[in-house]
Design brief:
The chain is of the alpha+beta class. The protein contains seven helices and 20 strands.
């Protein structure tokens, strides 16, 4: 395993923002040293495992745990280790989860820079997969290319960066698409989500290709944060072609995945950038994040602001029990190879109607600053947000060869 970096600043980066390579090296060495010292400290800390999700971690004081601070945004309570005898809540040890590259760095450095700042400071960084890829080499290489594009756009831009969900930040999910139905944009209804995965294609659910009473999907909008905001012309695209998976046979819920070809090349910027596909490599997918403008809960209104929600992976055998074979919809029950369940942590959290087709994603620990799309929001059989009843997502890695044959032939 090794780390690769590009060797110079993009030629088109603004001079006042483009850091010299030598300065980047100095900062990188500083971060590596901090990371090394953190590893030494971590080696003396007790191991722990989150009882609900199975995520591994180290016992740390609450005020030094980056994952706990991140979870506060989603109102996720920390799991405390054995009381260390102090009554000070901040000093009590919590099971601090092992996250991506950034969460392993020294907390003092993070408090000064922040993960977004680190994305701005360094050249694009990626690590080779732990094991040789069995599929998806094209998709992996394109992810690295988009990471380089992402970095250059960050340098050039001056913009700051379902149920149980919280408001996303503008530009936090630049691959997010809102899909509309109707001949005229001003009169269209927007009922599904999708993910930009290349200059031409959006990944979505096959059932989102058509909406009863409205017809086929005709519009994709990128770069917006609010459902009702006035989108710039450059962010509005027509759907040129709908390509559903050949094995999708409604009303069955299997192979619920489709590609939408845009009517012109999508122009990338700070707010619009493809997400990466999970190609089947080993990833930390115990917790993932759904995004969308769907209903805020059962019998509630559609979200006006983009929502993001943490969801936890459900074991395959539990998923099969929750979704037993059911008539024409799931005659064979859940198919582990192409479907997966994600659900709540005991607090109502779920994707809802209107979130369909949108991404289930994780932050990549290999291709830094990029999201990896592991699932496509497909369906659920119960009331939205009912505790103990997960949603079903199409497993993206199962369809990478099909996607590559169309998107990057």
């Amino acid at each position: 395993m090794h780390i690769q970096m590009s060797q110079s600043c993009p030629q088109y980066a603004k001079r006042r923002l483009c850091l010299s390579f030598n300065n980047n090296i100095i900062m990188l060495v500083f971060v590596i040293i901090c990371g090394f010292l953190t590893v030494l400290v971590n080696s003396q800390e007790r191991d722990c495992v989150n009882k609900y999700s199975g995520e591994k971690g180290k016992c740390k004081p609450l005020d030094k745990c980056q994952s706990a601070k991140h979870d506060q945004r989603y109102h996720i309570k920390p799991e405390f280790c054995t009381n260390n005898g102090t009554s000070d809540l901040k000093s009590q040890e919590v099971c601090c989860l092992q996250g991506d590259i950034i969460s392993k760095l020294d907390s003092t450095l993070l408090s000064i820079l922040g993960s977004d700042s680190l994305c701005l400071l360094f050249q694009p960084i990626h690590r080779d997969p732990e094991e040789p890829l069995k599929q998806g080499k094209k998709a992996w290489d394109m992810c690295i290319k988009y990471q380089e594009d992402f970095f250059s756009r960050r340098l050039n831009d001056s913009i700051s960066i379902g149920t149980g969900g919280v408001f996303a930040q503008r530009g936090e999910f630049p691959h997010m698409a809102l899909l509309g139905y109707g001949k005229i944009f001003s009169e269209a209804e927007f009922n599904c989500g999708g993910s930009l995965i290349s200059e031409r294609f959006v990944l979505t659910a096959a059932h989102c290709r058509y909406s009863a009473g409205l017809g086929y999907v005709t519009i994709a909008v990128f770069g917006i944060h609010y459902r009702n905001e006035t989108a710039e012309e450059k962010y509005i695209y027509g759907v040129k072609k709908i390509i559903k998976h050949p094995m999708y046979k409604p009303p069955k819920k299997y192979n619920d995945i489709a590609l939408l070809e845009m009517d012109r090349r999508v122009i990338f910027d700070f707010l619009v950038m493809p997400g990466c596909l999970h190609v089947g490599d080993r990833v930390d997918d115990g917790r993932a994040y759904g995004t969308g403008w769907g209903y805020l809960g059962q019998s509630m209104v559609l979200a006006q602001e983009l929502q993001t929600i943490p969801l936890w992976k459900i074991a395959n055998d539990t998923c099969r029990l929750k979704f037993a074979p059911y008539k024409r919809l799931l005659p064979d029950g859940i198919d582990d190879s192409s479907q997966m369940c994600y659900g709540d942590d005991g607090t109502p959290r779920d994707t809802c109607e209107g979130d369909s087709g949108g991404p289930l994603q994780i932050k990549s620990t290999s291709i830094y600053c990029m999201y990896v799309i592991i699932g496509v929001t497909s369906f659920g059989f119960t009331t939205c947000g009912e505790v103990g009843y997960p949603g079903v997502y199409t497993r993206v890695s199962n369809y990478v060869p099909w996607i590559e044959s169309i998107v990057w032939p």
